[in-house]
Amino acid sequence: MRRLRIPLTALAAVALILTAGSVPAAASSGEVVVFGTEVEPVTTYQDPSGCYALPLTAHVLVNRTDGPVQIYGDPFCMSPSLAVQPGFGSHLPGGSGSFSAG
Percentage of the chain surpassing pLDDT 70? Predict the structure, then answer.
């Protein structure tokens, strides 16, 4: 029994350390607006938090939140990113696939 107790105690300590520092991200207040083409309505993301895939026709992103928005070249927010500060917009580079906020 003692042999099992030490590894379980170590595993519990590691789990506690890993979860103690993780704080859920607060949602950005405001909206992110994405323009695609003249023949479709803009896409609006209200109080965004987390990763969002961009529409295939996305052309311009406007950050109307209270925090920076990151634009990524892949749909999973995993590649290097470009920051768009609050109150600013950006033409989306070809192949932009997602953005994250919050």
Answer: 75
What is the identity of the amino acid at 50?
Answer: G
Q: Which residue type, as a one-letter code, is found at position 62?
A: V
Between the CA atoms of 38, 39, 44 and 50, what dihedral angle is there, to the nearest 10 degrees? Answer: -90
Minimal CA–CA distance to 83: which of 57, 65, 3? 65
What are the DSSP E strand ranges found in 1-102? 30-35, 43-46, 50-53, 60-65, 69-72, 81-84, 89-91, 98-101
Instruction: Report yes or no: 61 and 92 within 8 Å, Cβ to Cβ.
Output: yes
**pTM here?**
0.72
Domains and CATH numbers, the chain: 30-101 (2.60.20)
pLDDT at 26: 63
30-35, strands of its sheet edge to edge: 43-46, 30-35, 60-65, 89-91
